[in-house]
TrEMBL record:
NCBIfam families: L-LDH-NAD, PRK00066.1. This is L-lactate dehydrogenase. The gene is ldh. HAMAP family: Lactate_dehydrog (MF_00488). SUPFAM superfamilies: LDH C-terminal domain-like (SSF56327), NAD(P)-binding Rossmann-fold domains (SSF51735).
Amino acid sequence: MVTAHGPVGTKIVLVGAGDVGVAYAYALVNQGLCDHLVLVDIDEKKTWGQVQDLNHAVPWSGHRTAVTQGTYDDCRDAALVCICAGAAQKPGETRLDLVGKNVAIFRGIVGSIRDSGFDGIYLIASNPVDILSYVTWKLSGAPAGRVIGSGTILDTARLRAALGEHVDVSPTSVHAYVIGEHGDTELPVFSAGSVAGVRLSTRLRETDGGMDAADRIFRETRDAAYEIIDAKGSTSFGIGMGLARITRAVLENEDVVLPVSVLVEDIYGRSGHQPVYIGTPAVINRSGVREPVELELDDAEQAQFTHSAETLEQVMRDAGVFDL
């Protein structure tokens, strides 16, 4: 059954059952976020094994999630399709280095999803996520609000965790965002941050290192992926949980604000520029992105955001993405 806002129910199709995809799948099963989870991957034997293993986790999950192996035809009546497929980021490689390889891969994936008759929400995790979210929007023909990139949800989680440890409070009491490209040009918005209702700058001045410590913490946040990839080959658990959080916001119609990659056209000084998908807080509900939230940036932050958006725009132009 399909409504004006997409299919009814909580069937999710996951395309790409690698490290990130399986971490997301495990989070879905553990939290009971869907009644039916379908895994689609070109490595059918390994995917079969992942499906069996996930089903064996269901009895102790406290939920009743059916996990199956499927094809793109399963997207037809899904509420949400999450794409984690694509070439992985290698040690020493930036997310933007992946553009050419993954745009080519996405042509086939998104075309197959679209041709199934899918009418739900696209959730994109493959890197470079901002560019591939734009590619998905263009290739799918879906409204921009129904294409959500994971954006800076992981970077924001890393920043909040590190700041919470620094000021000795739970990260859930830290309210600060990372915005911009999910990559080397991203930026923290310290000017709008707070800790338990106290301005972040005020709270940091009470700790060793002050704002210099905040800058160090952000650098460690930004570069964490490279260190983790060097140590274990990929990042998976943090982004898997972030994807699950976005999924819950969609399926439970939460109207919650999360830092994701959305189409930005006329905010943050972008009027007159090519629209790009880029990380910013946005209101998420059952229809996808209800609206982006424009943070009030100081002059330095605005300059950083402008640089981040222009970097994405240039890479997309060089790769011919705007010609899709």
